[in-house]
Amino acid sequence: MRATHPTSQRVISASTPGEFSPPSRLRSETEASLHRLSLNNARQRRSGFTLIEVLVVVSISTILLTLAANVAQDVVVANQITSAGETVMDELRLARHTAIAKDRVVEVRLYRPNVPNSFGEDQGVNALQAFIFDEDNATAKPLREARRLPEAIHISEDSSLSTLISDSRLKNDWKTGDEQIPLSDGGTDYSAFRIRFLPDGSTDLDSQQQWFLTMYPRSVKESPPPNYVTVQIKPARGTIRSYRP
């Protein structure tokens, strides 16, 4: 048998397939490179959003914006209703106080323009104005300019919600010294409902009935509306108060 040199055996053994082992430094560098590559891939995955994530964010944002818009609209409407109630009460109180202070008859007229607004819509009863009569109750002069309600609000003409808006309170005795005063949005083409405060603070209303006005958004068709303000007048004393749901 042929003899084999020990060195040759080691070389052959070292070069046997599957048994090669790289130096430790090379392994370390390879592992470090693989680790850096893995981190870069992870960063790239985290740097963007998937389509599902984007859709979820858009959906949530839309819902929140819708809720915020609805809340804001409700607040605006509530403020307009409050403003309308304060406008009506302020004019009625002015009329009563003036009647007592001046010892005169003071008439409050509630205007209903017969011409549509700029949007072609029926305006309804949307303004009021107080007038003071002379000692003979022949000549009437306005205490100030007509007070208008907010554009979106009107006084209900439903007899169950506004007993003051009725044929019995319609002013149709215009005469010299007490003519129709032109309004800015239709001249004298309007109807007027009236209530008079007497020098003792009382009114010309039937004391056997209840008298009130109800204000709410003109866009609401429900009766009674979900949000409104009602102003009540006590006939015998002329006192005024309001109610909110």
Mean pLDDT rating: 84
**Shape, per Cα inertia axes:** elongated
Largest sheet geometry: 5 strands, antiparallel
Structural class: alpha+beta
CA radius of gyration = 42 Å
Order of helices and strands: HHHEEEEEEEEE
Count of discrete alpha- or pi-helical segments spanning 4 or more residues: 3
Portion of residues in helices?
25-40%
Please provide the count of β strands: 9
Could you list the spans in which at least 5 consecutive residues all have pLDDT below 50? Answer: 1-16
State which percent range the strand residues make up: 15-25%
N- to C-terminal distance = 117 Å
Structure characterization notes:
This protein has 245 residues and is α+β, with helices and mostly antiparallel strands. The strands form two sheets. Strands 1, 2, 3, 4 and 6 form a five-stranded antiparallel sheet that branches. A four-stranded antiparallel sheet has the order 5-7-8-9, covered by helices on one side. 21% of the residues are buried. The N terminus is likely disordered.
Features of the shown structure:
245 residues, alpha+beta, five-stranded antiparallel β-sheet, four-stranded antiparallel β-sheet, 3 helices, 19% strand
In short:
It holds the Pfam family N_methyl. This protein has 245 residues and is of the alpha+beta class.
